[in-house]
Amino acid sequence: MSTETPETSEIPEISDEISDEISDEISETPGLTDADPGLFFLVGDVFADFARHDGVLTVSQLSRRIRSGSFPGGSGTARVTLGQGVSDFDVQYLRDTAARRGLAERVVIDDRALRNRAGREIAHKHRAENVLISRPLPTGPDRFVSDLLVDAGHEVMSDHVTGQHMQGMLAMEAGRQMFIAVAEQHYLPREAVGNSYFVIDSFATRYRNFLFPLPATVRCHVVSHRSPHRTRTMFHCELGVLQGGSETAEMEVRFTAFDTEVSHTKETRAAQRSLQDAGAALTELHTA
Q1: Three-state secondary structure along 84-97?
Q2: pTM of whole model > 0.90?
Q3: Per-residue pLDDT tens for 48-64?
Q4: Residue 254: beta bridge partners?
Q5: The dihedral of CA 212, 166, 131, 243: what is its sign?
Q6: What is the rounded CA–CA span in Å between residue 225 and residue 187?
Q7: Which residue in 149, 153, 140 sits closest to 177, CA to CA?
Q8: Is the CB of residue 244 less than 8 Å from the CB of residue 214?
Q9: Whole-angstrom distance, CA of residue 140 vs CA of residue 119
Q10: Strands, E, within the chain: which ranges?
Q11: What phi and psi, each to the nearest 5 degrees, are found at residue 162?
């Protein structure tokens, strides 16, 4: 199974005016701990800049506080909600650290979304840390939702982390995985599941707000789908990434799920034509 890399339309920049408004909102918003000192968000160490806000801790920061006995919540219970960049290994490490100090019942980590990460086979990724969504759940006719689950080891995170927000390519990749998983789980014939090759015809993305390392969801609306031939199914979907009740990115995609053998035949022919064209261009260059 394989997929093509998304082709994107020109992505508009977030204006300076909107950027300033967002910065003001962040600086003026009271920390989560102002309302409840025992409730906070946990993010991966890679998001240390974002963890400067009250009510947010990195994995390393929480680990140190547990070991010193000064974890959030004081003498009560620390209730941890997972943000982004936290892995299964991180959660288990923190639970083990708390248990060794007799604090297992006082450090409660809600990792339900993490446990429902979509399988690699429906997200079309070989490595589990590169899967960005939980298993899609239906919310209405032709509508589905998943949790956004960004692992610090994700391929897009390996070489580009700046500021406090997450880069836009993560939203696009989450959208790509979402429409593939929805098609695989809910629309393709049983014999086609796991035996389809997805080709993107168009993938337009518009960013409306910064995406921060906090809980977020990915929605998918299958606008239409049809099977003009038994070897292919064509889809039109609208997707969005939502955080805190606001849409941070919206996407519109049209793609086709082909039978793998049919698609490989088409791809091989296209590769041969491309090789011939490249060879002809190279010959012309050297003979000019």
Answers
A1: CCCCHHHHHHHHHH
A2: no
A3: 999 999 999 999 999 99
A4: 202, 236
A5: positive
A6: 8
A7: 149
A8: yes
A9: 22
A10: 39-43, 56-58, 78-82, 107-110, 137-140, 143-147, 196-207, 217-229, 232-243, 246-259
A11: -130, 140
